[in-house]
Amino acid sequence: MEFVKPQPTGKGPEEWFHGEVWFDVIHAGQEPSRLRANMVRFAPGAHTAWHHHAVGQALHVVSGIALIGTRDGTVYEARPGETVTCAPGEEHWHGAVEDTFMQHLALWEGTGPDDDRSETTWLEHVTAEDYGAARTRSR
């Protein structure tokens, strides 16, 4: 058993995020583990750029209201206690509503030693039109 020394809180880079975003790495597994877990805090209106994960991602909302956007133009709202999964390769973005902070636990897996794909592929920034699209509560 090992107690892992906490890493300092990191600021989300402008290449990947719009607005103020801060994250704490909870776990960055080393082979054979591929588990990744970050606690991410979004200021009101802050959100990721478009991206996808080679092995998928789960987002568990801790506080606030999360927005999760898909390429078909749908923007879902998720509330504390809800978990949203994104399939491997599914392009998406996520962030906070305009007037409230949001915090979620982001869970994903790294790729295996024989897999040359990037675990996360970052794409272009979300447009104001994407972020402002009509919102729905569930599929």
Kindly describe this structure.
Helices cover 3% and strands 45% of the residues. It has one helix and 14 strands; from the N terminus they run E-E-E-E-E-E-E-E-E-E-E-E-E-H-E. The strands form four sheets. Strands 1-3-4-12-7-10 form a six-stranded antiparallel β-sheet, with no helix packed on it.
For the biggest sheet, the summary is: 6 strands, antiparallel
> Which class best fits the helix and strand makeup?
mainly beta
Q: How much helix, percentage-wise, in residues? A: under 10%
The residue ranges in which pLDDT falls below 50 over 5 or more consecutive positions are none
**N→C terminal distance:** 41 Å
Total beta-strand segments? 14
Q: Tell me the β content.
A: over 45%
Output the helix-strand order. EEEEEEEEEEEEEHE
Mean pLDDT: 95
Strand order of the largest sheet: 1-3-4-12-7-10
Tell me, briefly, the overall form.
globular
User: Number of helical runs?
Assistant: 1
Brief summary:
The chain has 139 residues and is mainly beta. Helix content is 3%, strand content 45%. The strands form four sheets. A six-stranded antiparallel beta sheet has the order 1-3-4-12-7-10, with no helix packed on it.
